[in-house]
Design brief:
The protein is an alpha+beta fold. The protein has 14 helices and 48 strands. The protein has five domains: about 300 residues, Purple Acid Phosphatase, chain A, domain 2 (4-Layer Sandwich), CATH 3.60.21; about 190 residues, 5'-Nucleotidase, C-terminal domain (5'-nucleotidase,  domain 2, Alpha-Beta Complex); about 70 residues, Immunoglobulins (Immunoglobulin-like); about 70 residues, Immunoglobulin-like, CATH 2.60.40; about 70 residues, Immunoglobulins (Immunoglobulin-like). The strands form 13 sheets. Strands 1-17-16-2-5-6-7 form a seven-stranded mixed beta sheet. A six-stranded mixed beta sheet has the order 9-10-12-13-15-14, covered by helices on one side. The protein has a five-stranded mixed beta sheet with strand order 22-19-25-21-26. Helix 10 packs across helix 14. The longest helix has 18 residues. It is elongated. The N terminus is likely disordered.
């Protein structure tokens, strides 16, 4: 839990830890000065990122460390100091392994962990290198064709835990999400999580059928389950990166983010993945990581209150497995030697010689000598313009002298297929810019081209110039052939631009290509050739392009004197290498451009630096055509018609305005708040998106309302007229037997008198009126009275 006592002893030497006391300058012991005999002391020994390095050493601060035999010796010595010891692996125990493990499907590494009686493991990204099924075979056991001679493999004799790797078919974790270990009556919960970015750093087939959920959410979910079971001591095995200074200061990385996010009941987090040193406390949680390849051990010591069952004290040391002052473990050495003897005929084959050390170490610009050699081998094997190698795939150096098969395999152990593809110059720029990701930088090793980049530029735009072998700049629109491995071809390590490559052809394994190249080039040498250059002088000032309208016939502006200007119209090159004179102005003739057209310009200065593009959009200064308006009648509550698509149509009557938008076909319908009287004068005009206004269309509201039926007075037999009242000035008709027998116009007060022949009593008369607009009223029927 949070707010417990924490002591960090940091990185220490083996002899001090195993054969002496820890003394401060004043002679006081640094560890546990107070009496804590009532507490239960538990030791957790952790490794991370072992990578099957059974027979390989590495160096920390110039001192040789590692090999399984030395790691075993330290584990046994440390375990002997506390009977309550738990041994854990925080992922990547296998993958990118030494040939003694890799050639035998990493079974020797699992056998070594079994021999050391590890208690718990979790999954790193490399456990998925050969897919979920093979990962489960290593954990659970089973036969593999390459190792038949050893019998059926028994698998790991300790449990693996995984809280955030989910089987898509079941929706459940592929292994138990946590395990509870009991030491001297005290329960400790262990939760395992794997880096959720794993799908982006292994080939797609490696993670087929599983998904990786958020680590913090998974930890919190299962921490609650552990708490509900009364477990108060909780440790997380997280294959997530994190590092700190040796004194614990400046902790950084995703493991630190986890510590700040997860439940405060979590006490310890074992980090991994980035092969760094970490020994720090963050938000009350102890965080550790012990380099990689068995070079060190995270030695975590806990004190648990037997009454509250909570951790009341914790400290950690990162113990380097120095190859001095201790004898390697004989039992482990025997195991490793057995497998080394089995593969010796393969790995001892001489390939060639190196006239100098070929190292994977990168200079400040990101170039490595060995990276150049490998990229050259890929390009040569597939006969392409360029070669690209991801740095994470280069796992070791090649020493000066004789090169054997095993050394080459250690350099490229993944067995990735080479893939030839076609990319445009623009896609190659995208690839190179994808080296700088938000959380990490992975500098590709390249062949067949050079480029410059600047740290002053933002991520995604750091590449300045890309050059071909003849010194010309790469053409963004031209197509080139490139060789990558199948991991990168599928977007691995976030190089997603490779997925857009065309005409993909699969070639031999990258390891075979390197073998062939080393044989052909022996004795092999290398150098920092300047293929990648970090620069500070990065760009010329972008040109100024004056506003352009659809009425203009010139593109004008200013640019650096002596530079060469290139102009694009709608992304298509229009003019190239226009020399800018001493006055720094330019004027380029063009036809009238349509509104919305993009005009872009950039320069290349005398030093060869390219400016950024300046882009302007041609302004719309042309008024739309006057709208076409349908007839508006006095009973209509909308005005309809057709105008420029997207324009705003305005209808004006006196001081009143109504508006509507023309659709993509130009049709509009402007709603009126009320019907307009016949004879009302309307003005209709359109304004486009650039606020250019059309001429107005003038129209008069049409009278389309029929007059009311006339009021007809009684007609008596013998009378020769019909009288009554109708709409003023309307024409009144009188019919009998479907024949018009008379008509007359109503006066201004609506009265009318229609003369006719005298009609007999009982004759039916039909009276109607028609107004000036031609609208006819309903007919009134009357009968002539006696």
């Amino acid at each position: 839990m949070k707010k417990k006592q924490f002591t960090r002893l940091g990185q220490i030497t083996a002899s001090a830890l195993l054969f002496g006391s820890f003394m401060s300058p004043a002679g006081q012991k640094l560890a546990h000065a107070e009496d804590t005999t009532a507490n239960v002391k538990v030791q957790i020994l952790g490794i991370n990122d072992f990578h099957g390095q059974l027979d390989k050493t590495t160096k920390i601060n110039g001192q040789v460390t590692g090999t399984a035999a030395y790691l075993a010796a330290y584990l046994k010595k440390l375990e002997a100091t506390n009977p309550n010891t738990i041994k854990v692996s925080a992922g990547d125990a296998v993958g990118a392994s030494s040939p003694v493990s890799a050639l035998l499907q990493d079974e020797p590494t699992i056998k070594f962990l079994n021999l050391m009686k590890f208690d718990i493991g979790t999954l790193g990204n490399h456990e998925f290198d050969e897919g979920v099924a093979e990962m489960k075979r290593l954990v659970n056991g089973g036969e593999h064709p390459k190792t038949k001679q050893y019998g059926t493999f028994e698998g790991a004799n300790f449990p693996y835990i995984s809280a955030n790797v989910i089987d898509k078919s079941t929706g459940k974790p592929i292994f138990d999400p946590y395990i509870i270990k009991e030491e001297a009556g005290q329960k400790i919960g262990f939760i395992g999580v794997t880096y959720s970015d794993t799908p982006s750093i292994v080939i797609p087939s490696g993670v087929e059928g599983v998904e990786f959920t958020d680590e913090a959410e998974a930890i919190n979910k299962y921490t609650k389950e552990l708490k509900d079971q009364g477990v108060k001591a909780i440790v997380v095995l997280a294959h997530n990166p994190g590092t700190s200074n040796l004194d614990g200061s400046n902790p950084t990385g995703e493991a630190i983010d986890l510590a700040n996010t997860v439940d405060d009941e979590v006490d310890v987090i074992f980090a991994a993945h980035d092969h760094k040193y970490l020994n720090s406390t963050v938000d009350g949680k102890l965080l550790v990581q012990a380099y990689s390849s068995g070079a060190a051990i995270s030695d975590v010591n806990l004190e648990i209150d037997p009454t509250t069952h909570d951790i009341v004290k914790k400290d950690a040391q990162i113990v380097n497995t120095l190859n001095t002052g201790i004898e390697p473990d004989a039992e482990t050495q025997g195991l490793v030697d057995k497998y080394l003897n089995d593969i010796k005929p393969i790995i001892s084959q001489e390939v060639g010689t190196a006239s100098m050390p070929l190292t994977r170490d990168q200079n400040e610009s990101g170039e490595s000598v060995l990276g150049n050699v490998i990229a050259d081998s890929m390009r040569t094997e597939m006969k392409t313009d360029f070669g690209f190698m991801n740095p994470g795939g280069i796992r070791a150096n090649i020493d000066q002298g004789t090169i054997n098969w095993g050394q080459v395999y250690t350099v490229e152990p993944f067995g990735n297929d080479l893939v030839k593809m076609t990319l445009t110059g623009a896609q190659i720029r995208d690839v190179l810019n994808q080296q700088w990701q938000p959380e990490k930088t992975n500098m590709l090793q390249i062949s067949g081209l050079t480029y410059t980049w600047s740290d002053a530029l933002p991520k995604g735009q750091k590449v300045v110039n890309i050059f071909l072998p003849d010194g010309k700049k790469i053409d963004p629109n031209a197509e080139y052939t490139a060789t990558v491995n199948n991991f990168m071809a599928t977007g691995g390590d976030s190089y997603t631009a490779f997925t857009g490559g065309k005409n993909k052809v699969t070639g031999p394994v990258d390891f075979d290509a390197l073998l062939n190249y080393l044989k052909a080039q022996s004795p092999v040498s290398g150098a920092f050739e300047g293929r990648i250059k970090k620069v500070t002088d990065i760009t010329a000032d972008a040109p100024v392009v004056n506003p352009v309208t659809d009425h203009d016939s010139f593109i004008t502006g200013k640019a650096e004197a002596g530079s060469k200007l290139t102009v694009w119209i709608n992304g298509k090159e229009f003019k190239r290498d226009v020399l800018i004179g001493a006055d720094g102005t330019f004027k380029i003739k063009t036809s009238h451009l349509k509104a919305g057209t993009t005009v872009s310009a950039s320069i290349t200065d005398a030093a060869g630096n390219d400016s950024e593009k300046t882009t302007v959009t041609v302004l719309d200064k042309t008024a739309p055509h006057a709208p076409y308006v349908h007839i508006v009648r006095d009973f209509d509550k909308k005005v309809t018609g057709q105008a420029e698509a997207g324009s705003t149509v305005t209808v004006k009557a006196g001081k009143t305005l109504w508006t509507g938008i023309a659709d993509r076909k130009g049709m509009f319908s402007v709603k009126l708040d009320k019907q307009q009287k016949a004879g009302t004068l309307l003005y209709v005009f359109a304004a486009d998106k650039s606020q250019n206004i059309s001429s107005s269309v003038k129209l008069i509201v049409k009278d389309a309302t029929a007059p009311k039926a006339p009021v007809v007075h009684a007609v008596k037999a013998g009378e020769g007229w019909v009288t009554g009242k109708a709409e003023a000035y309307s024409k009144v008709y009188v019919k009998s037997h479907n024949k018009l027998i008379g008509y007359a116009y109503a006066g201004k007060n609506g009265t009318f008198t229609v003369k006719m022949k005298k009609q007999k009593a009982g004759t039916a008369l039909y009276v109607s009126s028609k107004d000036r607009a031609g609208n006819t009223s309903k007919t009134v029927k009357i009968f002539v009275k006696r």
